[in-house]
Amino acid sequence: MRSEDVWCCVMEKLGLGPEILLHENPELIYARLTGFGQTGTYAKSAGHDINYLALSGVLSRLGRKDENPYAPLNLLADFAGGGVLCTMGIIMALYERTRSSKGQVIDASMVEGTAYLSSFLWKSGILGIWNRPRGENLLDSGAPFYETYKTADGKFMAVGSIEPQFYEQLIKGLGLDSSKLPSQFSISDWPEMKKLFADVFSQKTQAEWCRIFDGTDACVTPVLSIEDAASHLHNKERGSFIKNDQEEISPRPSPLLSRTPATPSLRRDPYIGEHTEEILLEYGFTKEEIAKLHSDKVIEISYPKAKL
Fold first, then answer.
1. Which of 5, 48, 107, 232 is catalytic?
2. What are 249-279's pLDDT values in tens digits?
3. Is 228 designated active site?
4. Residue 160 CA neighbour count, 13 Å, CB half
5. Among 44, 49, 160, 238, which residue's Cβ finds the most Cβ atoms within 10 Å?
6. Hey, is 206 helix, strand or coil?
């Protein structure tokens, strides 16, 4: 069973499917978020982010030349194609309800959400921007000016100098002479240019390269670790990361709203099931009913352990 199907199963086990609830409340917005969607051959099949990416067609375009396709953690299908687009569906349904006074069921498929989110791949292929094999295109590590390079201290710099004026600043920062180099968009020269850039970047530390490129429009930035991101000057100035009462670091809610900005909680994240019993009691369930739901594995209950 897919993890994202659990919530639908819980609702069904509680006798709270969309047909029943919409009958009780015709204005209800009922979101069903699954990997493969509510219908189709794979609708009842198990799967994870990598499987949804594969079926969407997007996974085939992710990866370097002559390497297997790779999934970018579980960010693209689970969170972006799934969670974010499901949220958009809820917002659209809420807006539509202001006109019709009717609710509806949202069928959010991670396969379709990922494909739709990646519409650029289909559109740019038609335009000829993304029509070469994987790893040989402008944005998939094919171009020497859109790549990551290792520095002398084993760290990395990210280069995104696509526009000619930015590319010129990249070349200047690297200490190279553009008149002695091939044209920026000479694709046949890209492999050799990547080797040249890699050799130059390997001669200085990440901090040294930052001193060269910070304040320029070369589109060259350090590849920061999760640990270092919160302490980077730019992120500190914006307050992009916060600490909770356990000194754990996490990103601040985004985007920022000018009139009603989010006020993040500084408490630690709750454990899965930590407040289940408390909330169900508030909604009128008895302890016996809660115990039965727990024994039937409809709900999960967990209690925090004291740190001694």
1. 48
2. 999 999 999 999 988 888 888 888 999 999 9
3. no
4. 8
5. 49
6. helix
